[in-house]
Specification:
Largest sheet of chain A: 7 strands, mixed
CATH class of the largest domain in chain A: Alpha Beta
CATH architecture of chain B: 2-Layer Sandwich
Radius of gyration of chain B: 11 Å
CATH topology of the largest domain in chain A: FAD/NAD(P)-binding domain
Largest interface: A-B, 15 and 18 residues
Bound molecules: flavin-adenine dinucleotide
Shape of chain A: globular
Number of strands of chain A: 21
CATH architecture of the largest domain in chain A: 3-Layer(bba) Sandwich
Number of domains of chain B: 1
Low-confidence stretches of chain A: none
Order of helices and strands of chain B: EHEEHE
Helix content of chain A: 25-40%
Structural class of chain A: alpha/beta
Mean pLDDT of chain A: 96
Strand content of chain A: 15-25%
Largest sheet of chain B: 4 strands, antiparallel
Strand content of chain B: 25-35%
Radius of gyration of chain A: 24 Å
Oligomer: heterodimer
Mean pLDDT of chain B: 95
CATH superfamily of the largest domain in chain A: FAD/NAD(P)-binding domain
Chain lengths: 479, 76
């Protein structure tokens, strides 16, 4: 060991959700004895609290408060214009983020004397040793660890488009600093981040144009949901260019001119701002993973077993830097816990199959398990039902009937293998689907479980009933 | 037979009696040949017969179980 090397029981590269959950778990199991070095740059808490889940949900909630009164859905309630000041909203957002970071991260970590924070970026010198440097690669120190967890997250990926850099653009890292609403925004990428931010800006009054390379929105969702969401967003005024590619971007009279290529040919649109939301890339490029024997996939995402062990003994990975399909705060935190539990000899494994995911548009979209297509491909056949919210009493009272609930079951035993929901509170009611998929519940288990009438969750029960009877001919009190 | 030396970081020891308890339990585990634990450093060395015991299974010893006060990680 080098003379200047400081040894720790655990080195954590990163200080986001995965890192914090791992540090806390390690401290809990060892009753505060595990010495932990937590290395990272930027504000504590990483993506979720600073530039991810928290500010995006804040902005969405604020924007709905402006939009909904302007678009009442109940007879006799009249359109109301809500006075608001976007710069004050953004100030409130930043202050909320800063409070959340303080109370949920900065203050929390102070309770763990066994955790030493290092401000810098880590890179492997060998399987056990990490050099900490600043962003100009100036060496800050060297640490070694009996175990190492890589939790370095990801950053927005920027497509190589002619003129984009010169014209300037926002990403989900920089959007939160704005104080003025752009009157028009071209959003490159119609994934969950693009749609969430797009709807928030639209609800505040921006003109929003989504430019998407694929021919449908949210490819992980059931096609019915992707098209229902697109129809709703179009009705609200969002504009879509599907199967579109951007040829170039130019500055033009203080605006940005985006040249789009679709099957119809070339088209130019002038906007005030561009938001790049074309996905994220893992922060693994500068970690020197080769010397540590840690293998990645072709995108640079770290290969792990379900125990979160990497290809190198004693090195684990968790969070957005891991090779997987869903990139969520909840998973990052769970993977951090699983990695540390396994360091202590437990047998813990991540279960992606029953992990819930969500898109926080209004209405929200949430899902768990397999889609109809995924299950059929794997097993040859499947059984599914789609229940439109127009048949649900609660949804029709609210005047919010655009959504649907789709359940996929294994035809062999009626076990629920997947559920997707588009509904105002889909993120809350999807948990029923998560229990069902995780525990192998059948549609009969759902039907025989009491659900409140009238409620959105009752929709899940009726969707289950639709497997056994024609629900269009069903009275609302049939069990 | 070639013995393998496995290093452990042991948490939760408060006195020399803990060293005794942990050592005894480890020595009862099939494949463990010898145990040497330092209370001061919180470290342990275990000689194992690798044909009978995998290093990670030392952590599955009863003395490190979920409800036990003692925990350990491998120093790989
Ligand atoms: C706009 C947006 C909205 C989102 N909304 C949601 C949501 O509603 N719900 C949800 O579940 N998920 C959401 N997510 C995803 C969620 O934010 C991420 O999945 C989660 O934050 C990932 O956590 P992490 O710990 O893996 O990485 P991060 O939080 O990104 O942390 C990575 C850390 O690694 C550090 N680091 C980087 N390189 C190095 C290095 N070389 N050495 C040491 N440290 C390094 C960084 O400084 C940082 O501290 C959203 C993401 C975005 C961008």
């Amino acid at each position: 060991m080098r003379k200047e090397t400081k040894h720790y029981d655990l080195i954590i590269l990163g200080r986001g959700a995965a890192a914090f959950s791992a540090a806390i778990k390690g401290s809990e199991i060892s009753k505060g004895e595990m010495t932990i070095a937590m290395i990272g740059t930027g504000p504590l808490g990483g993506t979720c609290v600073n530039v991810g889940c928290v500010p995006s949900k804040y902005l969405l909630e604020a924007s709905h408060r402006v939009f909904m009164p302007k678009h009442p859905r109940i007879d006799g309630i009249y359109e109301t214009i809500v006075d608001h000041d976007i710069s004050a909203v953004m100030k409130g957002l930043r202050s909320y983020v800063s409070d959340a970071r303080e109370s949920k991260y900065a203050e929390v970590i102070k309770n763990y004397n066994n955790v030493t924070l290092y401000d810098g970026l880590g890179k492997f010198l060998d399987r056990k040793t990490v050099e900490i440097g600043d962003d100009r690669e100036k060496k800050i120190g060297i640490v070694s660890g009996s175990n190492i967890l890589i939790a370095t997250g990801s950053h927005p990926s920027i497509p190589n488009i002619e003129g984009l850099r010169d014209a300037g653009y926002l990403t989900s890292d920089s959007l939160w600093g704005i104080d003025k609403l752009p009157s028009s925004v071209a959003i490159i990428g119609g994934g969950s981040i693009g749609l969430e931010i797009g709807q928030a800006l639209l609800h505040f009054g921006s003109k929003v144009i989504i430019i998407e390379a694929l021919d449908s929105l949210l490819p992980q969702t059931e096609p019915e949901i992707g098209s229902a969401l697109r129809a709703l967003l179009e009705k609200e005024g969002m504009q879509f260019y599907m199967r579109a590619r951007i040829d170039s971007v130019h500055k033009y009279k203080g605006r940005k001119l985006v040249e789009i290529i679709t099957h119809k040919g070339k088209e130019k649109i002038a906007v005030d701002e561009i938001l790049v939301a074309t996905g994220r890339e893992p922060n693994t490029g500068s970690l020197n993973l080769e010397v540590a024997g840690v293998k990645t996939d072709s995108r640079g995402l770290i290969l792990t077993e379900s125990s979160m062990r990497t290809t190198s003994p004693g090195i684990y990975a968790a969070g957005d830097c891991v090779s997987k399909r869903l990139f969520l705060e909840t998973l990052a935190a769970r993977e951090g816990v699983i990695a540390v539990s396994n360091m202590f000899g437990e047998t813990a494994n991540i279960d992606y199959g029953s992990s819930t995911w969500a898109v926080f548009t209004y209405p929200q979209v949430a899902g768990v398990g397999m889609t109809e297509n995924e299950f059929s491909k794997k097993n040859g056949s499947c059984l599914c039902r789609t229940f439109p919210l127009s048949n649900l009493t609660k949804a029709s009272i609210m005047g919010e009937t655009e959504g649907l609930i789709k359940i996929t079951v294994d035809p062999k035993d009626n076990r629920i293998v997947g559920m997707q929901i588009m509904a105002p509170n889909a993120t809350d009611i999807i948990t029923e689907g998560a229990y069902a998929v995780r525990n192998g519940y059948t549609i009969d288990d759902i039907i025989s479980t009491s659900h409140i009438f009238p409620s959105m969750s009752e929709g899940i029960k009726i969707a289950a009933q639709s497997f056994i009877r024609d629900i269009t001919k069903m009275s609302c009190c049939v069990e | 037979m070639e013995e393998k030396n496995v290093k452990l970081r042991i948490y939760g020891m408060t006195c020399e009696d803990c060293v005794e308890t942990i050592s005894r339990s480890l020595l009862e585990q099939q494949g463990v040949m010898d145990v040497n634990i330092s209370f001061q450093d919180g470290l342990g060395e275990v000689e194992i017969d690798p044909t009978q015991l995998k290093p990670e299974n030392i952590l599955k010893n009863q003395v490190f179980s979920r409800n036990s006060h003692y925990k350990a990680t491998l120093i790989e």
